[in-house]
C-alpha cells in the first residue's frame, strides 16, 4: 500500500476508522494527507508500524494518555510542522513477550 484510504489502512492495522480519527485528534496516528474538498484521510505504508503498535497497546489495555507518553510524537504532527505521521516508534519493554 503506497497510499490508502482510512478504511484500507484500518483493515491493514486492525483499527476502525473511528479509532483512526480519534488517534489523529490525539496526535498519535496522523493521516499522511487529508483531501481539502472531501475530508478523506489517506495513510501511507510507512505509517503501518506505528498504527499497529498503538492498536497492540490498546488491546492489552493501555490507556491513551500512557500510550502518548510511550510512543514518540510523530514528526510533522500539529506540534511540529505540516501533516503526516512518520514518528519513531518506541514500544514499552517486554511488549513482544506479552503478545
What attributes characterize this protein structure?
DNA-binding transcription factor activity; about 100 residues; disordered C terminus; globular; DNA-bd_dom_put_sf; Multidrug-efflux Transporter Regulator, Chain: A, Domain 2; three-stranded antiparallel sheet
How large, in whole angstroms, is the Cα Rg? 13 Å
- Count up the helices: 5
Mean pLDDT: 82
Classify the oligomer: single chain
Poorly predicted tracts of residues: 79-87, 95-99
**Might you state the CATH topology name?**
Multidrug-efflux Transporter Regulator, Chain: A, Domain 2
Assign the structural class, choosing from mainly alpha, mainly beta, alpha/beta, alpha+beta, or little secondary structure: mainly alpha
Strand share of the residues?
A: 5-15%
Shape: globular
Q: If strands are numbered along the chain, what order do they take across the biggest sheet?
A: 1-3-2
Summarize the helix and strand pattern as letters: EHHEEHHH
Distance N to C terminus? 25 Å
Taking the sheet with the most strands, its summary is: 3 strands, antiparallel
CATH structural architecture:
Orthogonal Bundle
Number of strands: 3
Instruction: Supply the CATH class.
Output: Mainly Alpha
Keywords: DNA-binding
Protein name: MerR-like DNA binding protein
Pfam families: MerR_1
GO molecular function, one term: DNA-binding transcription factor activity
Amino acid at each position: 500500500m503506497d497510499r490508502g484510504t482510512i478504511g484500507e489502512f484500518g483493515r491493514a492495522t486492525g483499527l476502525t476508522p473511528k479509532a483512526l480519527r480519534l488517534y489523529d485528534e490525539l496526535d498519535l496516528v496522523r493521516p499522511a494527507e487529508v483531501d481539502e474538498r472531501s475530508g478523506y484521510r489517506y495513510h501511507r505504508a510507512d505509517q503501518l508500524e506505528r498504527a499497529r503498535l498503538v492498536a497492540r497497546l490498546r488491546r492489552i489495555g493501555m490507556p491513551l494518555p500512557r500510550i502518548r507518553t510511550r510512543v514518540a510524537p510523530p514528526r510533522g504532527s500539529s506540534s511540529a510542522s505540516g501533516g503526516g505521521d512518520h514518528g519513531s516508534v518506541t514500544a514499552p519493554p517486554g511488549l513482544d513477550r506479552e503478545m
